[in-house]
Write a structure and sequence with these properties.
Blueprint: H1 2-22, H2 24-67, H3 74-80, E1 82-85, H4 99-102, E2 105-109, E3 112-117, H5 126-130, H6 135-151, H7 156-161, H8 163-169, H9 174-206, H10 211-238, H11 242-271, H12 277-290, H13 297-313, H14 325-362, H15 367-379, H16 383-411, H17 423-428
Antiparallel strand pairs: 1-2, 2-3
Helix pairs in contact: 1-9, 2-6, 2-9, 3-16, 6-10, 6-11, 9-10, 10-11, 10-15, 11-14, 12-14, 14-16
């Protein structure tokens, strides 16, 4: 029984593959798509390799500059600051994700949690952003178009020619026919995409990326194409004519690939607005100046700190302290600022998360939104990975500033800001 099912399936699949390969439209479209895909992969690979090399060089220069800053007060060194550079995953060559929009480097200094810098999207027009050729764009937008062109007439065309009824009269089961055609078209598509998949795998392995992550990326896109193939065949089976199938499929492709992502993005910005950089830091500056609980908060906090420190050391005045009060005060100011920043950035990240959730609801209308989210997550270029690095960089900033303030507290004595540290302290600081 199984043999009677498998043999017709193989015959139908082979026939569909043979006819597809003979189709001039397939050859031209497949060649064009392969060229675009290879160009996107190669360009992404070179750009990623150059970025990784630039980051390594910049990190070495930042380290050299930090060590070579010369004698300086520890708190001045905290303001001297340095850059932290977001690592570039190897698979960002395939999907650049949000890096161009959220930034790839952050300046670390005392009292201030700076925004991310180096955001290429700020220097691009909307048209340039849409037309940016990446492998992810080609896979998510152009490959489904190829599947439509290949499969819109699979059933509808045969119905118009009358051959579909002939196949039914020969006793070919409808499910066997559908599977055979799906396998045939899938094999033709695999001939186009397999070289690109092997190229991606080779680059990822050469760049030190995990093979598992690369294979997951391949499986994700394979499922995406399988869904599109099933959709195209279903519409072709439903439509009375090939022209009707083509119009319906092209309409859905335009809706899910171009219109819905734009509408969802605009809706997310309207429903869950994110403050501009100016608005965001104006709020922080106001909280910093007035304190989180009113205009008198800052003076009251200093008086309370003085009393607490004098009580701890059993003295009646700050001049009797065995430690430098300025270092203690600076660190207390840092910890208060941290509370302000935690509240502001916590709200900001919640807004980003809310927008992401709206995007995932939009995936019900646009498979592209779903596969884009998974693709960025696997490539390590999504908002979650960006937040992970941003929070890790902020924890390093706080640890570094505390280290420098503590040194001033313990070693400045009565010199205060006249106390100078040297390279031994800079080397001992957290890296």
């Amino acid at each position: 029984m199984a043999h009677q099912t498998i043999r017709p399936l193989r015959v139908i699949a082979a026939k569909e593959l043979r006819e597809t390969l003979r189709d001039g439209r397939f050859r031209w479209l497949a060649a064009s798509l392969l060229i675009l895909l290879a160009a996107g992969l190669v360009a992404g690979a070179f750009e990623t390799r150059a970025a990784r090399a630039a980051i390594a060089l910049a990190e070495a220069e930042e380290r050299s500059t930090w060590l070579g800053q010369g004698p300086r007060n520890p708190h001045s060194a905290a303001h001297f600051g340095s850059y932290a550079f977001k690592p570039r995953p190897v698979l960002s060559a395939l999907d650049r994700g949000v890096d161009a929009y959220l930034g790839t480097a952050v300046w670390l200094e005392a009292h201030w949690q700076d925004p991310f810098a180096l955001r290429p999207a700020e220097d691009r027009t909307a048209v340039q952003r849409f037309g940016e050729l990446t492998a992810a764009f080609t896979l998510q937008v152009l490959v489904p178009l190829l599947i439509i062109v290949l499969g819109f007439g699979t059933f509808a065309g045969e119905r118009e020619r009358g051959t579909l009824r002939q196949l039914a009269s020969l006793g070919v089961d409808a499910h066997t026919l559908a599977l055979g055609k799906a396998f045939g078209l899938g094999a033709a598509l695999a001939l186009v995409l397999l070289p690109a998949g092997l190229l991606t795998l080779a680059f990822a392995v050469a760049g030190g990326s995990g093979i598992v992550a690369t294979l997951v990326m391949v499986v994700v896109y394979a499922l995406y194409f399988a869904i599109w193939l099933g959709l195209v065949l279903a519409v072709s089976a439903w439509a009375s004519t090939a022209r009707t199938a083509l119009v319906v499929l092209l309409g859905f492709w335009m809706l899910q690939a171009l219109i819905v992502p734009r509408l969802v993005a605009d809706a997310a910005e309207q429903v869950i607005p994110v403050p501009t950089a100016g608005e965001f830091f104006a709020i922080i500056a106001e909280h910093e100046a007035q304190g989180m609980h009113g205009a008198g908060d800052r003076a009251a906090r200093r008086q309370a700190l003085e009393a607490e420190v004098m009580a701890e050391y059993g003295v009646d005045s700050l001049s009797e302290l065995p430690v430098n009060f300025a270092g203690i005060s600076l660190q207390a100011s840092e910890e208060h600022s941290n509370l302000v920043y935690d509240a502001a950035y916590g709200d900001l990240w919640q807004r980003y998360l809310g927008q992401e959730q709206l995007h995932m609801w939009g995936a019900a209308l646009s498979p592209r939104l779903a596969v884009r989210a998974v693709s960025m997550a696997v490539a390590g270029t999504d908002v979650a990975r960006h937040r992970h690095f941003a929070e890790a960089a902020e924890q390093h900033r706080r640890a570094l500033v505390k280290f420098l303030n503590d040194d001033m507290t313990q070693n400045a004595g009565t010199d205060g800001f006249g106390y100078l540290a040297d390279e031994a302290l800079w080397r001992a600081a957290p890296t």
